[in-house]
Amino acid sequence: MSLTIEEVKKNAAYKQLPILTLDERYHRLFPDKDKTPEIKRLEKRLNELLKRQGQITNDLKAVRKIKADLMKSVIENVENTELSDAKRQKLMSTNQKLIIEARDKIEKLEQDELDIPYQIRDANLELVLECVQVCYDRIHQNYEDIQLLGKWINEMRIELKKKILIKQDKEIKNTEIYTYMHDLLGPEMMEVFDNKSDEKG
After folding, report:
1. Which residue has the higher pLDDT, 72 or 85?
2. Contacts of 40 (CB under 8 A, 6+ apart)
3. Which end of the chain lies in a sparser environment, N or C, as judged by fewer CB atoms within 10 Å?
4. Is the predicted pLDDT of residue 1 greater than 60, yes or no?
5. DSSP assignment, residue 15?
6. Which residues constitute the domain of residue 52?
7. 141 and 164 together in one domain
């Protein structure tokens, strides 16, 4: 049954797959007690990538703000007439170095921001494939159990029918026995025996 990642990616519906760990239906299908170790591992990896995506977004905002503050500081330093040339040069050099570091960090984060959705989609797809396999295994196991239970139920029905026939036969026999005794001994004598029988019962 198992498809490869490449086979699934060829299908247009692949891009519509929900991120499993963010979907309530997934959590109903796989409560914690039903998760295999492999599902737990893949789920953890996917969740870590989702956290990483959020962290990249936050880091980008922070570094862009730092860079903007540094640029503003450079302009302020250029316009500040109270600073000596040596002090201005030192501040400019420091700020330039920090701006270059911020720019490099932004470039790396932007690349990570572009890459992470693909990593998330691949990790999600691995989890999807594992979950589908587990679900089909469960369905097949349930089907086998259903077949066995169906066979047992049919056998019990036959057995039940036999027991019902035996019960009905015994009820008929009891009626016949009592009727013959009643005819043979008469109603008054049978009443004596019935009362004695009721005392024992």
Report:
1. 72
2. none
3. C
4. no
5. G
6. 5-145
7. no
